[in-house]
Amino acid sequence: MRSWLFEAAPRGRVAALRTLTYLFIVFDLLVYSSWVRTRGDVPTELYQPLWIGRVLHLPAPDGTLVNVVFWTLLVLAPLAATGRFPRLLGWLVCGFYLEWLVIAMSYGKVDHDRFAFLIALAVLPTVGRARHGDREPSEAAGWALRMIQIAVVATYFLAAWAKMRFGGLGWMTGSVLARAFIRRGSDFADLIASVPYLMIAAQIGMVTFEALSPLVFALRGRNRYAAIAFFYSFHLLSFATISISFAPHLVALTSFLPLERVRPIVWLRRVAARDRSADTLEPVAVGSGGG
Amino acid sequence: MAELTTTARATRVIAAVIGVALLLAGSAWGQDDKFPFGPFSMYAGVNGPNEPAPDTRVEGTDSTGRVIVLAERNAGVRRAEIEGQEGAYVDDPARLARIVDSYQRLNPGAPPLVKVALIVREHEIRHSSATGRWYDDVRAVWERQA
Predict the structure, then answer these.
(1) Is residue B27 located within the same domain as residue B81?
(2) What is the ipTM score, two decimals?
């Protein structure tokens, strides 16, 4: 168990995940959940504080609070994405983003696509400095990635659990998908909905996949990547049918991938260097670092 | 390889154990209210294979007669939030005025809303599939006093 929890992973993987995670926050604030900003104008009578809001005596959101949290995150998240001051900026972003979500979820509807993303925000600062492309294995990096992976898989597995807890076995033969398709369905969803019994088969398939998702940890190499590709395809299908993307969860899901090999800045430099050498016919050294 | 000290490792094990315990407790006994450790109850409710599917919307009519669907982007209130509090709106339709306030604040130049209705479209379902038939059920109405 100990070796599994602390299985060393390259620091560069954490560096890349950090950049992706903190940049996603910018996208989230401006596009994905931009509606959260409207909370400042919603009358406080509609505010239904979450348990965490009641225990910590968090203030009911008003225009000032929403603006302060929004602008603070919009400044801090891109700074954190650079990898500088990973602990200080990481913890600040984690705290402010949690408050942002508390504001978002305190009006009677809670989203379930952010658990693993929140865990990522909570564990990424613990790794400390990590440079892009750094292949040196580190136990701190391994633990952080393992925590995010567990959170991702828990999101699936516990979703199956919740279906049995709230819906029971009848969930699989019920009409949850038909209902979701009516409420949020695309033309593609209408096409699927017209096939007899496909909805019931899909419901059984969903619970089975969610319940078996922890097996991803038993897989290695190509098989594990195939399972991750299957997870992504599940979300692609959800997006195509009911336009639910689970975007923050998809970011956390990259914790299973060898992200340290993704080096967009290095690639761009290489292309630029090649162009230059083609122009001058002089050999040019390929730059290192960055990424 | 960069190894962790014994203390660092112990701290991380304790943090993980607490996190997993909170998560499991939330899933076993908690409700959404326990966010972020609540149950992953998205689409977990059971609907019978022939149970009609409700599709809720809040419609506002402005002073020019235009009908607008009020939602999170123009009125700061999400559909699921309306559904969660449907009973409160039905008992006290004046509560819909809060959504009007919020719409007016978010759209300062827009013509004022004169009427807001909470409408549920009930879609017929047979054998877990929609038949295409539906009817609208108006559950609560608020009208601006002249």
Answers:
(1) no
(2) 0.88
